[in-house]
Amino acid sequence: MRLARVEGNVVATRKHPSLEGWRLVVCQPIDLDGEDDGTPIIAIDPHGAGMHQRVIVSSDGLCARRAVGDNRSPVRMMISGLIDKSEEDAA
Predict the structure, then answer these.
(1) Pick from 15, 36, 34, 32: which is nearest to 24 by CA?
(2) CATH number among 2.40.50.220, 1.10.530.10, 1.10.10.60, 1.10.8.60, domain 2-85
(3) What are the beta bridge partners of residue 57?
(4) Is the pTM of this model over 0.85?
(5) Which ranges of the chain have pLDDT less than 50?
(6) What pLDDT shows up at residue 90?
(7) 66-83: buried (b, 16+ CB within 10 Å) or exposed (e) per residue?
């Protein structure tokens, strides 16, 4: 799992049939201070994350394939949670 920030949407005119109806988003991995930490990744978004919202991205491909309902799907990354606030934000 990685902490990330949603940076944009992916528009695809052609994609694997298992991804029909799924929102694909560009997620920038970040560290605990919110600084960029690695290259952006594409993930399916079952939660409706907003732009620049912090999220938790799972790289569990089996879980993502189960979510789309196709064991042969090429999907690997999936947003598994939205972060409303952290303990640092509350202080």
Answers:
(1) 15
(2) 2.40.50.220
(3) 2, 79
(4) yes
(5) none
(6) 59
(7) ebbeeeebebbbbbbeee
